[in-house]
Amino acid sequence: MDRFKTLQAFVLAANKGSLSAAALAEGVSPAVMSRRLDALEARLGVKLMVRTTRRLVLTSEGEAFLEQCSRIFDELDAAEAAVSLGGLQPSGDLKISAPAGFGRRHVAPILGEFLEAHPLVDASLDLTDRTVDLVEEGIDCAIRIGEPPDSSLISIRLGSMRRAVVGSPEYFARNGRPLHPSELAQHNCLTLRQQRGWLFSDPAKPGEVRLLKVGGRLVCNDGAVLREQSLRGAGLCWRSEWEVGEDVRAGRLQTVLDEFSAPPMGIYALMPQRRLAPLRLRLWIDFVRGRFGSTDYWSRAGVAGFRNPVSPETIEGL
């Protein structure tokens, strides 16, 4: 049996997750796909996957072999694109992960544009706030906000985003406006469960950042809930401008402690280490970096920097 076809069948079945889906994509019957996989395993003398017509699970040997085969096919795609008349014609599957709220509002629409521009590319978008394991879960690209940890992953900065302490005009009318981060102890701070505290900078010490623990009557693992409660006047929250920037400019929320805002956080694309990333992934990174790195994009999205309708007071020192 053709050696290349057996490798193709294995990679396709692993990526599609079932024999029937792989057979449909290849235009053959599941029986033909099964024979190709049998031939491959017989030649290698090792079990690569436990499979049925509905579902398959890779063995540890299968996972290692899939990584090697995927790299070979990615390099072949790149080589063909480099010499073909059409030039850059990406194809294949792209698996992306992004934070739930940010991904829903900003990654999903951009991905839709990317797929329209590249009709031979299919994508899977996983919106989750947990830290995914790119290698274990087969993720091609994870979009994350905040400095990435030191690891074997490749990180590419796509843009930046500020955070600010915000509250509703009604809340400030009842409770006053904190003029210094230390005054947050007298306010109801709505906090995110996974955050250790809120970050502030010191105007007298440029570059120095301080983590301040705050507390209040509500702790939640969903930032959207904190925004909604803050809009209702329940308390203050520390949120990113992509989430509350439009509320600030509309006057529904107001920022405080702007002089003490921490430096902008980076928006990054994380990828597994590869000698040669597939063409579809390289073009996706360029596409999303062109959006997130543009002030025009954030202006159109309604989050081009906080513009507080109330002039901030000038505060000295932290």
Helix and strand layout, with pairings?
Blueprint (H helix, E strand, L loop, with lengths): L2 H14 L2 H8 L3 H15 L4 E3 L4 E3 L1 H24 L8 E7 L1 H18 L3 E7 L6 H4 L3 E5 L8 E8 L1 E5 L1 H7 L15 E2 L5 E5 L2 E8 L6 E2 L2 H9 L5 E4 H10 L3 E3 L8 E7 L7 H14 L2 H6 L18
Parallel strand pairs: 3-4, 3-5, 8-11
Antiparallel strand pairs: 1-2, 5-14, 6-14, 7-12, 7-13, 9-10
In words, what does this structure look like?
The protein contains eleven helices and 14 strands. It has 318 residues and is α/β, with parallel strands linked by helices. It has three domains: 3-83, Arc Repressor Mutant, subunit A (Orthogonal Bundle); 92-161 and 265-300, 3-Layer(aba) Sandwich (D-Maltodextrin-Binding Protein, domain 2); 163-260, Periplasmic binding protein-like II (D-Maltodextrin-Binding Protein, domain 2), CATH 3.40.190.10. The strands form five sheets. A five-stranded mixed beta sheet has the order 4-3-5-14-6, covered by helices on one side. A three-stranded antiparallel beta sheet has the order 12-7-13. A two-stranded antiparallel ribbon has the order 1-2. The longest helix has 24 residues, at 60-83. The model is unreliable at 309-318 (pLDDT under 50).
Order of helices and strands: HHHEEHEHEHEEEHEEEEHEHEEHH
Mean pLDDT: 85
* First-residue to last-residue Cα separation: 73 Å
Q: Quick one: CATH class of the largest domain?
A: Alpha Beta
Q: Do you know the CATH architecture of the largest domain?
A: 3-Layer(aba) Sandwich
CATH topology of the largest domain: D-Maltodextrin-Binding Protein, domain 2
Percent of sequence in beta strands: 15-25%
Number of strands: 14
What is the number of domains? 3
Structural class: alpha/beta
Q: What is the count of DSSP helices, taking H or I runs of 4+ residues? A: 11
CATH level-4 homologous superfamily of the largest domain:
Periplasmic binding protein-like II
Residues in helices, as a percent range? 40-55%
Stretches where pLDDT is under 50 for at least 5 consecutive residues are: 309-318
Rg (CA only): 25 Å
Strand order of the largest sheet: 4-3-5-14-6
